[in-house]
Task: structure prediction
Amino acid sequence: MTEILRVEQVTKTYGKRGEKQYQALKGINFTVNSGEYVAIMGASGSGKTTLLNILSTLDKPTSGHVFINHEDNSTLNANQLADFRSKQIGFIFQDFNLLENLTNRENIALPLSLRGISTKRIDPLIDRIAGRLGIEQILAKYPAEVSGGQKQRVAAARALVHEPAILLADEPTGALDSKSARELLDTMEDLNQNDGITTLMVTHDPFAASFASRILFIKDGKIGKQMLKNELSRQEFYHLLIDHLDTDE
Amino acid sequence: MIWKLSLTGIKNRFKDYTVLFSGLVVANMIFYMFLTIAINPAFIKNDIQTSTSYVQFTFGFGIVLLVIISMIYLVYANSFLLSMRKHDYGMYMMLGAKSSKIGVLIFLETLITGILATSAGIILGFGLTTVVAKLLIDKLGLTVTHFSPILPNAVLWTLIFFTLMFLFGALKNARKLVRTPVISLLKDEQKPAEMSHKTGLRSVEAIAGLVLLAIGYYTLSLPAAMILIIIPVALVTIVAGSYFTFNSFFSALIGFLLKRKDFSYRGIRVFTLGQLKFRIHDYTKILTIISLLFALALGAITVGLNFSTLKDQATASTYYDTTIVSSSSAVQEAKKQLHIKHEQTYHYKENKKYLYFKRAEFSTNPVKNNEFYVKNDTPAYKTVNLKIADLAKQGTTANNALNSMLPAKHHKPIRLVSQQKWAGLKGDKQFVTLLTVKNFQQDYPILLKIEKQQLEESKNYANVYQSSKAGAYQLVMNFSSGFEFMGFFLGFAFLTMLASTLMFKILTGAASDKIRYQMLFEMGTRMSVLRNSIKNEIGILFILPGILGVIDVLFGLQMFRVFLPAPYHNLWIPFTIFIILYVLYYLITVKLYEKIVLKSDTVLNKGE
Result:
């Protein structure tokens, strides 16, 4: 299996030298292979948002390296980073982050037009991913006109339409009711298993995390344990996870 | 405690406050500057020599317009202030501050900001008025004598007007803040914009807008005698037409562009267009007002400047730059200072009945005259030689023209004689010298001095002075410079205020746009692409009312055909001034907007 993401000795320190400093990440190491579905779990303040910002190139580590598709993004300048994000990374956020001034179709079109894909190819690509996510009927609507679950599907379509190397999801079910959350997680699992989409999800919700094939626990800026699903069913993995969290407290 | 928090809030948003504060100061300065001429009776009486009631009406109208634009401006400035503070105050309320206390806080904050800005505005207004007045007077060669930068009445009225306006603004802000639920204060920025998508009604409205504009423009071209119909009809149709056009036509146009995917699916065009579509809809009222004010401002400068074409008119009707009939040393000394291009002298003898001229002098040097004729509906002049045969025939053009160049209370018949006969005639020996100089404008002060000197020496010269070029030039200049001055003042006042009104409106919405730009950045949009999108979006918001305003002016100028010879003459001057000022405002708005929306804790600001 090819390696998609490698994180090497990443630290992040806030505060200027000589002032009071706070170390949010204290040497993070892990890799994600192509086709994997990894969840990073941690409580508030554990450093998971900082880590996600660094993985998504929105923030730079104080030391260490992040390789996505073997490319070290600490060597890139701002323009290259922007291009890198538009090409390699797909985002799903907790609060959808759809542009409410654009129709759902136009929202999904953005990553493609941003990458300069020929205008003729854009609509067929949108239709294909929309069909995959079951949102063909709402493409002409504005985000404000559809439900939360549908919004997150549109966001997922936007994140995946340009076929990024990795899908980064930040608490994707955080703003959804339990039924919509379940549907979205099923879809993400389906995309991972059947379309081979490499996924990295950051969450504090054990239920959401139980859909992943591997879980990394982050605590006080360090990766502690990791859990593998292996041959377990999702339910079994969930119970194992709950047990682990109970004993860990 | 809450006061301390409030002050800290101001400190944190110091940059935004600087924008607001300087905008208010500028509004004050301009208001004060206009009042220094509008309510300065000595200036109106002496520097604008025309019927007083007409001028009072014009200035009264000017004040009303200025009050209206200042009010609109202050409403937007105040809502900008509220939008800056909403989140902070919402937070204090959530933490348990009483809404009445918060109400008092925003009330005092608005009022104190206003009073400080007014005081600063008036003091800086002294300086600005001095500089602008001097600049205008010098550049335009105006003769303005009764203008003073410090006018107590203007100070008083500026203070009263702005204090009242801020008092109302403070009350309004306080009411609005107290009545808005805390949750909307905190979350307002995340609320999606709402907009109806009914296309049927939209297209009817779009067409109606264009038709109304067409009717309005057609009305403006009607004969001036129908002025009582023209003004109300044009006013209603153009205002309504502009409104509908902004509300529907432009949105329809953007909708069309969005559907043309080979156009919209490039870069983040689809985002820029989406922003504009909602913006223009939301901005309908302000864009309408701005297009009309733009037209008024541009119109004021154009018409003001156009009065100076009367000066050209005055000089075009006379061929010779001056007429010299005196041999006094004062006149001859002054004459030496002129840059003479051509000089011709005719000698004559005057007895009780006749003026005897030498015929030969006319044959060698014919007298030239500018004859009036109409070319393509506009007045024009052509230079002709006076017919020698007609010079002595009373009532002919040539005879009249020559008489107007000779000093006399009552003109005696002219006789042309040969050199020998002339030598034998008795009578006073006199002469008349006709001059042209290389540059009339340059020599004008000396020419005027020569003519005034001759008038002093002999009352008979009054006849020549009346139709002299320098005399006519002075008369028109006195009359037109007052208008020019007012046109410039009003034009500047309107333009600066309308442009900053638009600026505040755009900046008020910037806070809610921040999240969108952040989102695009995270998706991998380059900063340069985001900046371009901002430039385009704001550019279009500036250009649309500008274009409509320019069209309004181009049609509106037709109304001035009656008393201005060529209302479209030198149109590029006011247009250039306007474009420069407008572009300046545009660039400032873009910079400030970028500062607000492209600000982030992440690498956003760490350069490219």
In short: Chain A has a mean pLDDT of 88. The first helix of chain A runs from residue 48 to 55. The domain at 3-248 of chain A is CATH 3.40.50.300 (Rossmann fold).
